[in-house]
Amino acid sequence: MKKILLRISIGFLALLILAVLAIGLFLDGAVKRGVETFGPELTKVDVKLDRVSLSLFSGAGQIKGLVVGNPEGFKTPHAISVGSASVALKPASLFSDKIVIKSIRVEAPDITFEGGFGGNNLGKILANVQSAPGGGGGKTNAAAKTEESKPGRKLEVDEFIITGASVNLSLNGIGSQSVTVPLPDIHLSNLGTNPDGITAAELTRQVLAAIEHSAAQAAAVSLGDLSKSANGITRNLGKSVDGSVTNLTKGLGDLFKKK
Fold it and tell me: Among 60, 88, 164, 198, which is most buried by a count of CB atoms within 10 Å?
């Protein structure tokens, strides 16, 4: 009898382990499929994710190879590329209506700010997200209201950190200038801590808004330096700069408009 009970216990334990592994594999695959399906619908650009790993026991996870493409009309290969990001969540919340994520930490993402006198790529993606249901853009049409009223999994993100980022500034229309500069760390906190939580679309909007704002500031500094250089060069040449520099300065603000 003892041997039978022992065998049953071992068999049950083995089945339990296999079940947990199966759920883990299914969850990883589901996250990847969700990102690659929901991401393009939200941003209107290609979104690819190489790999996801998430532990149901510890709640720790890793995201590898996330690439967000560029809107139509922009020439650079992508808008954002993330080699690695770490996630820490409360495992029990996976089975509730609101998933509680304790932290998301994005390490050294490669960001491209492609700007011209018609707008910039990050601003265009942000506008796409804002216009999507639940994206915080204030859509009032009936279809959007219907979709927003559907029940869905909400999120709470206690801490979202982007660190070690660099931005490639591709400034069209003024000699196709291209330069890479570091970005200060971005730290968002207490997102969706209210009982209703936050939608994935709204989380995406807030993160993209922070990235675009930081990249635009870096572009403004770079353009300011370029304008100063133009002034200095033309002064040294002893030529009038009223026309060229004024026209350049007048057009700088257009770089930060959404296309």
Answer: 198
